[in-house]
Design a protein that fits this description.
132 residues; alpha/beta; Rossmann fold; five-stranded parallel sheet; 5 helices; binds manganese (II) ion
Length: 132
Amino acid sequence: MSDSLLIIEDNEQNMYLMHFLLEKKGFSVIEADNGREGIEKALRFKPGAILLDIQLPEMDGYAVARELKEHPELSGVPIIAVTSYAMVGDRERILAAGATGYIEKPINPDTFVEEIIRYLSTHNRSNQEGYA
Ligand code: MN
């Protein structure tokens, strides 16, 4: 685990914006523009969390989330889906695939990093309760 965040996103503008906002708040950011590269980098760098786009070429975010969850060494790494899919069913589906949270596009620069930090603190708190 580390304080770096891995972003898996194929849209350059979204990637740029998320990277910029997170780096400004002191996170170090690792980029991957497709699912396969994202899984490889997750295994190599063991990021503190993974931000996962759903609409990706070849391998979509659902498949990426499921494959990430198959690796025991990544079981403690929260996956936050970042997607423009707003349907309730899609939200349930990505949570069922292994995501712990969900942020909707378009990214709001005023609240994005706060939302990420809130997910991370909730995740860490529930992990600690698990050990109690
Ligand atoms: Mn996309």
